[in-house]
Specification:
Length: 317
């Protein structure tokens, strides 16, 4: 559905004069008809930019409202009700094949602008300037700001912020964390002794940027938390970067579990990083609620059973 807002006088007097000269130049030639008559003409107000045009009578009633097409490999041919019109009007854009010249509004209005008329820019579509000299509008004005769900002929596709962000997410690589432990994965621990866990890699990502036409998107990827699993359930830690030091001895870990593993053997430790992706655009459209994304890292710890050393006391002679 086309939604229009009337705007008058976008172009300057020089542009209007040039446009009128070009427009009326192609319409002024007489057009043959069954009654043998008809011409085109009109005038433009150099202040408001409003043009009044009298178009020729089409040769037949079946010619339709407008059109454009190829000329068998030559220059494109555009027409309105059987009359030739320019396929491109300087300062106004390209002929849409119906009744108007269209050009993308640059920059796009913010999402709060009334010209969107309830449409969400994140869902697609864009705002175009439309110069419609043949149909006119209220008070004879022919300039419109129009919301179009798809680009008109002659106009490049305009991605919405949501589409740009979706394309960025397709190639986004969420990093798996590098983690370490005490006892280390290269060493051996003992049943019942504390196990320390921590992350050694960066917990943030640089901002990402995407652009399509005049729409720009800035994407932020932030770490929410890390979920650890050692085979006995999940847990999280407020501090995930404090590493074990020799001076810590058998102290309870900042992140880990003080009681250690209850059984010997090989135990898998999984660290799942929970990231949140948000983005904002330069036209007031944003994704403030983080989009959840996860990446997991695993290490394997070897735990031995502590052996008691029994010594038989010797008899004293």
């Amino acid at each position: 559905m086309l939604t229009r807002q009337l705007i008058s006088g976008r172009a300057g007097a020089a542009t209007v004069t040039a446009a009128c000269a070009l427009l009326f130049g192609v319409l002024a030639a007489p057009s043959a008809s069954a009654s043998g008559g008809g011409g085109g003409g009109g005038s433009c107000d150099p202040v408001t930019g409003v043009c009044t045009i009298s178009a020729s009578t089409p040769p037949s009633s079946g010619s339709g409202g407008g059109g454009g097409g190829g000329n068998k490999g030559g220059k494109p041919v555009c027409s309105y009700q059987g009359n030739p019109v320019s396929c491109m009007l300087p300062g106004y854009g390209d002929w849409d094949g119906v009744a108007c010249y269209d050009s993308l509004d640059d920059p796009q209005p913010p999402a709060s602008a009334t010209v969107w008329y309830g449409h969400n820019p994140a869902d697609g579509g864009a705002i175009y300037w439309e110069y419609c000299p043949y149909t006119g509008g209220a008070a004879g004005q022919e300039y419109y700001l129009a919301y179009l769900p798809t680009p008109p002929p002659g106009q490049p596709a305009q991605e919405s912020p949501g589409q740009i962000a979706a394309d960025m997410l397709k190639t986004l690589k969420i990093p798996a964390l590098t983690i370490d432990s005490a006892p280390s994965a290269q060493g051996r621990g003992l049943v019942g002794l504390p196990v320390w866990l921590w992350a050694t890699s960066k917990l943030s990502m640089p901002d990402l940027y995407g652009r399509a036409g005049n729409v720009k998107v800035t994407m932020k990827v932030s770490l929410g938390h890390i979920t650890w699993n050692t085979g006995g359930g999940d847990f999280s830690c407020n501090n995930v970067t404090t590493a074990y030091q020799a001076r810590d001895g058998l102290e309870a870990p900042v992140c880990g579990f003080a009681s250690g593993f209850a059984t010997s053997g090989r135990h898998t430790v999984t660290a799942t990083a929970h990231w949140g992706v948000t983005w904002q655009s330069n036209i007031g459209i944003s994704q403030p609620v983080p989009i959840p994304m996860t990446a997991a890292t695993q290490i394997t710890l070897t735990i031995d059973q502590a052996q008691a050393l029994n010594v038989t006391p010797q008899e004293t002679p």
